[in-house]
Write a structure and sequence with these properties.
Elements (H helix, E strand, L loop, with lengths): L7 H10 L5 E4 L1 H6 L1 H9 L3 E4 L12 H19 L5 E2 L8 H9 L3 E2 L4 E2 L8 H11 L6 E2 L7 H14 L16 E3 L5 E3 L9
Parallel strand pairs: 1-2, 3-4, 5-6
Antiparallel strand pairs: 7-8
Length: 200
């Protein structure tokens, strides 16, 4: 969440009606502009996590600059929610080994997605529903955007479609492995043979 704020309350309402807790990755500048929405998200039980302070291409920054971007955003979020984020989604999905290792050095986990709703391109709600429901698999992380034109219209049918396929919903922190895993060539976590549980 880095830009508008038109749909936040509606998205909270839809998710609440379905008893779903989601993860919202927010930009520090957005946090400063809409602190009441950050508090609403947190109070509704959603995770408020880090999407950088100013939305730069992280791979173009030095490790020190990366850390400053993330720590600055963390401080803004924690001031409102009382909780310091542990997850970071790089702007533009732009990451490399340096981003991942630098984030781990400050106890942050770098998060990507494997199903992109493309809602920011303003496709019809039915297209969003079809794209997400048809491409989701066990452990999927689905990318949506706040203030995308048709996301509120599509979201109930996305939820219903995924439930019909037997999926349930978790915030990202409860989906990922924090130890006992390796990462394959696609960026997906693979649990060690001795570990059990669900992962992304």
């Amino acid at each position: 969440m880095g830009w508008g704020n038109e749909d936040t309350e509606q998205l909270i309402e839809i998710l609440g009606e379905h008893d779903i807790r989601a993860t919202f990755f927010v930009v520090g500048e957005w946090v400063e502009k809409y602190p009441e929405s950050v508090k609403q998200l947190s109070d509704a039980g959603h995770e408020v996590m880090n999407h950088s302070s100013t939305h730069p291409h992280m791979t173009e920054l030095s490790p020190d600059a990366m850390i400053e971007e993330v720590r600055s955003c963390n401080e803004k979020i924690e001031k409102i929610t009382g909780e310091c984020p542990t997850l970071f989604r790089p702007p533009y999905g732009d990451y490399n080994d340096s981003v991942v290792s630098t984030m781990r050095s400050i106890d942050m986990y770098t998060i990507q997605w494997d199903v992109d709703s493309l809602d920011w391109k303003d496709p019809a709600p039915s297209e969003i529903v079809s794209r997400v429901v048809n491409n989701a698999s066990n452990g999927s992380i689905i990318l949506f955007h706040n203030a995308a034109k048709n996301t509120p219209a599509a979201l109930p049918d996305v939820i219903d479609g995924l439930c019909e396929k037997g999926f349930s919903f978790l915030p990202v922190s409860e989906l990922i492995y924090t130890d006992g895993y390796t990462i394959d060539h696609t960026g997906r976590q693979i649990p060690d043979q001795t570990e059990s549980g669900s992962g992304a």
